[in-house]
Design brief:
Length: 1015
């Protein structure tokens, strides 16, 4: 039996007292003490796991001031804080056992854009790509780039002094900071901008005595140690110190900028709330040259000559990353630009971009092409080929592939996964190739696999050795490798942290800075934060406060994961494989993943959040001695016992409820199963959890309604008008809404599909008769696979599909309706789903033997045959194949001549994608475009998030508000841009229903538009 689960991680009394006092104050944000919320903030994109006491979401800067001024009271001196943005740190940068100050939920506004002077003022929680969206109409962008730009915040970038591709030209974040507003440990506000040296003596921060003292002390210290600083600091583009002693004064010692100390301080000095940033004009022209090599070493050794060609960006990836990309959804968008070379194997790739004025860029590219052509002819540098890409969208797609490399490495097969812990080393670019060869030899000596990619122009390469953190020997090996890499970088005049900040790696700082300068860093920490309360344990500690409390050996996620038996880990691979990459936090409402996070801003409602909660659930079950596999196969408790358990929900804490709260918010759209770099399939383990949870607790009535819909529809369709009257009258709708929690149920089609096809040749399926058809004639037949939604609620569409098949010269055969099982799977009725799936699979395999194409109309249902059936049935699924309508039509048009010419006056349509379809089958839009082009029409497609319906999700009363919110995020604005409603084409039944509900019209399916074109 599923037991009550308690986590035993209660809040420390001093934190409870402090949070209670904060709740009683004028604080206007949110305070989240839920164990689920704490767990989600316990991890980032690193191997570490530190459980915080609670999460605070300040509504505005005044809240931050209040949080810290209240904590300044003597009785709360033990309370510590860590500011957090996107949570993309690779070395535990923002993790803490204290309180998290999450600025990403509310402090996320672009406050001001001054295009004339070329600057913007933004809050710390603004996502980098969202800022660039706001800047683009003004002709500017914020140029420091990073792979996590669609979820990393400006506050996080400032705190780690982030940079990425093109940093030789664009610099680091600190090079663009014009001013910072932050809150000091006493709750006072510090606004820093460059100061003339004479103003330092005149109390530049007014009556803020703490700020004046800090500025005066740092100014004197950095002047006094100037020579030592210049001598000791390596000459690196990416030299990140934590506290930038070198640049706080300008070269002439006439200008002092305290912002340079805050940039890169990782939240250890103050809580940054706002930044004024220098902007870069958008380049008029961008051209990329993809250069292919016979080895990764060849790519590295060729890079210096590419930098000398005055390229804006030189990025490299190895064959491991390329091969993983080929297996990912991203590859369809870049394959044309990284074509295979006949009789050659591509083992390395340099992506070289030139950006700027048109003539200048074209001149540089022409020079590079001439050089590469000559080198290819001479068989130099291991070159095997190159391609030039001029289309901006294609260049962006290639960068998207490169940015996804971090997550893609997590998809490596086996228990050992490439990990971030020594992944951002920087050495002088001229030393990079030799350094990497020795680095590779080091990893090879430990018999480790690894992936490499990075910014060769800046001497920064991301190297991720594959280790299994559930293996204690590998955990110890991580420390050994860290020590060896730290020493190796120093040998080559480099630094272990060249891009991502130090995080827990502060233990290596003394060897880099020496005792004198490390002591200076400790003094600065002491002046800002004498009691070590702001992100304690990172970078440095105040003088005489002892060693850093965190280091490379600090608590890791693996120490918790290894408590889960290996057979359980294997049964829940999606739960265990989540590596914290956080792509599911993508800010854009036009990205499919993840709709529930986009609607709520709550990380508990995300794939990463759900995987983390499930891991803890599995760990707690093991702690209770429960065999999860046996539990899944066990019988449910009796109705009376489940009723009693459900009634006691409010009285008895059960961690399972927190997991349920997270998982029931999932729309089961399955975008995560393909968009996530490691393919975390939330609907899969959601169904597994539901199956177990409801063995202890009662299911909602609506679950039975949804799970039984496929069985009841054929009966209801025998009397559609009676059924519609019974379900659609106001009294019935009120009862269904109040008693079941179900709204806006669709009407059954009248006339029914059976009535529409009465007497039609497609009716009267007979397997024996079809088997008697000569094999040579079978290709002329098309078997239409029914689904519950189109056949019973949109029968006209199925009828028109049969007409289209006939118009194209084929003979349609309507197969008998067989339940697909998708609704039962979504609600976690796994036993029933397995039986339904086996019955349908057996039938479809018999029909498949005829050799006639089988085609289904609804993407979600057709894709269920390919995914959930495979998962539930394994080999018993059989080889049958059901095609999507576009897949079948592509096979038809590609085999026929006589495509119509698409003219300026040709009919135009816009296809709105079903999120399951567009993520699982990313080429679908191109297929529909080709099909419409064949018939003389032009089809456009739009990038969209989820429409908010997702099967029956949008019909549930609890989800109604969120469903409408999601529709208004991307669908409604995109529909508003289309001139005529008749031009809107939607392939998913649930999406068409949602458009009808909230936009007020029923859009066509693409096949309906095609039928009209042909007619």
């Amino acid at each position: 039996m599923l037991p009550l689960l308690s986590h035993k991680q209660t809040l420390e009394p001093i934190y409870l007292e402090y949070l209670d006092a904060l709740e009683q104050s004028e604080f206007e944000g949110e305070i989240d003490k839920r164990y689920s919320a704490r767990l989600i903030q316990a991890t980032d994109n690193s191997v570490y796991q530190f459980l915080p006491q609670a999460v605070i979401y300040p509504l505005h800067q005044q809240d931050v001031e209040l949080v810290l001024s209240l904590a300044a009271q003597a009785k709360y001196k033990q309370v510590t804080f860590s500011a957090r943005g996107g949570g993309t740190g690779t070395n535990g940068q923002s993790l803490t056992h204290g309180l998290i100050l999450d600025v990403s939920r509310h402090l996320n506004q672009v406050l001001e854009i001054n295009a004339e002077e070329g600057w913007a003022r933004v809050q710390a929680g603004v996502v980098k790509d969202a800022l660039n969206d706001a800047l683009r109409p003004h002709g500017f962008f914020f140029s420091p780039d990073l792979s996590t730009s669609n979820r990393a915040t400006i506050g996080g970038m400032v705190n780690t002094d982030a940079s990425g591709a093109g940093s030789l030209v664009y610099g680091k974040t600190s090079d663009h900071v014009l001013g910072i507003t932050s809150v000091l440990i006493d709750g006072s506000v510090l606004s820093t901008t460059p100061l003339d040296h004479t103003s330092l003596e005149q109390h530049p921060f007014g009556d803020n005595q703490l700020a004046n003292t800090i500025a005066s002390n740092i100014a004197q210290l950095c002047r006094a140690k100037r020579d030592t600083i210049i001598e000791r600091f390596p000459k690196l583009n990416r030299f990140l110190t934590g506290y930038d002693l070198k640049h706080v004064w300008n070269d002439e010692l006439t200008q002092f900028d305290l912002s340079r100390i805050l940039a890169g301080s990782e939240g250890t000095l103050a809580v940054i709330t706002e930044t004024k940033l220098n902007l870069t004009p958008l380049p008029k022209t961008r051209i990329m040259v993809n250069i292919k090599y016979d080895s990764f070493e060849s790519a590295l050794r060729h890079a210096p000559s590419l930098v000398q060609a005055n390229a804006t960006v030189v990025e490299t990836v190895d064959s491991k990353v390329l091969n993983l990309a080929r297996e990912d959804i991203i590859w369809h968008s870049v394959a044309e630009h990284i074509k295979a070379v006949p009789n050659k194997i591509i083992e390395g790739l340099n992506m070289v971009e030139f950006a700027g004025d048109d003539d200048e860029v074209k001149h540089k590219v022409a020079q590079l092409e001439a050089m590469l052509t000559e080198q290819l002819a001479q068989q130099q540098f291991g070159l095997v080929g190159f391609q030039v890409i001029e289309n901006r969208a294609d260049i962006d797609s290639i960068y998207a592939m490169r940015k996804k490399a971090v997550g893609l490495l997590g998809a490596t097969k086996g228990s050992r996964k490439p990990l971030a812990f020594a992944e951002d080393t920087a050495v002088p670019p001229e030393n990079l190739a030799d350094y990497i060869m020795e680095f590779r030899a080091l990893l090879d000596s430990h018999q480790l696999q690894y992936g490499m990619f990075g910014h060769v122009d800046a001497g920064v390469l991301h190297v991720r050795p594959a280790l299994d953190m559930c293996d204690q020997a590998d955990e110890k090996l991580l420390k050994v490798i860290s020590d060896q890499v730290a020493a190796l970088t120093l040998k080559y005049g480099g630094l272990m942290w060249g891009e991502h900040g130090k995080g827990v790696r502060g233990e290596y700082a003394p060897a880099v800075f020496g005792d004198e300068l490390y002591g200076a860093l400790e003094q600065i920490k002491g002046w800002f934060d004498p009691d070590n309360r702001l992100n304690p344990g990172k970078l440095v500690a105040p003088p005489q406060s002892g060693p850093l409390m965190y280091n490379v050996d600090s608590a890791k996620r693996g120490s918790f994961d290894r408590q889960i038996p290996i057979q359980t880990r294997n049964a829940f691979p999606d739960v265990m494989n989540c590596n914290g990459n956080g792509l599911c936090f993508n800010y854009s409402s036009y990205s499919p993943m993840c709709p529930s996070f986009k609607a709520t801003g709550d990380r508990v409602q995300s794939p990463k959040g759900r995987a983390g909660l499930m891991r803890e659930w599995l760990r707690l079950l093991e702690a209770e001695g429960v065999d999860v596999d046996a539990l899944a196969k066990s019988k449910s408790l009796g109705w009376m016992q489940r009723t009693q358990n459900t009634l006691n929900n409010q009285r008895d804490y059960d961690y399972s409820h927190e997991v349920m709260e997270s998982l029931k918010g999932c729309l089961a759209c399955k975008a995560c199963s393909s968009q996530c770099p490691v393919k975390v399939d939330v609907p899969k383990f959601r169904a597994q959890f539901f199956n177990i949870y409801y063995k202890r607790y009662l299911r909602p009535v609506k679950d039975y309604l949804v799970a039984g819909i496929e069985d009841s529809l054929p009966l209801m369709a025998t009397m559609p008008k009676v059924t519609n009257f019974a379900s659609q009258n106001p009294l019935s709708q009120w009862v269904i809404k109040k008693a079941i929690g179900y709204v806006d149920a669709p009407k059954l089609s009248v006339p029914t599909l059976k009535q529409r096809l009465d007497g039609h040749a497609s009716r009267g399926y007979d397997l024996d008769a079809l088997s008697a058809i000569p094999e040579a004639e079978r290709s002329q037949y098309v078997l239409v696979v029914q689904d519950p939604f189109n056949s019973f609620y949109d029968a006209g569409l199925v009828y028109r599909f049969i007409q289209l098949i006939e118009k194209l010269g084929f003979k349609p055969v309507l197969l008998p309706f067989k339940p697909n099982g998708k609704p039962t799977h979504i609600k976690g009725f796994l036993d029933k789903f397995a039986k339904t799936a086996q019955d349908s699979a057996d039938f479809l395999n018999r029909v498949y033997g005829l050799g006639m194409p089988m085609v289904g109309l609804d993407p979600a249902l057709v894709l269920c045959y390919r995914d959930e059936y495979k998962e539930a049935l394994g080999q018993r699924r059989g080889p049958f194949e059901v095609k999507l309508a576009n897949e079948w039509l592509m096979s038809v048009v590609s085999s026929r001549d006589g495509a119509a010419k698409v003219t300026e006056q040709a009919p135009q349509f816009t296809w709105f994608s079903h999120c399951t379809e567009s993520t699982a089958k990313p080429n679908t839009a191109n297929e529909w475009k080709a099909i419409f082009s064949h018939f003389g029409a032009k089809l456009n497609s739009v990038n969209l998030g989820c429409c908010g319906m997702a099967g029956t999700y949008g019909h549930e009363l609890d989800n109604l508000e969120r469903s409408e919110q999601l529709f208004e995020m991307s669908w409604q604005p995109s529909i508003d841009k289309i001139a005529e409603n008749s031009q809107v084409l939607v392939s998913g039944y649930s999406c068409r229903s949602q458009v009808k509900r909230f936009a007020g019209f029923k859009p066509q399916h693409p096949i309906e538009a095609l039928l009209k074109l042909i007619n």
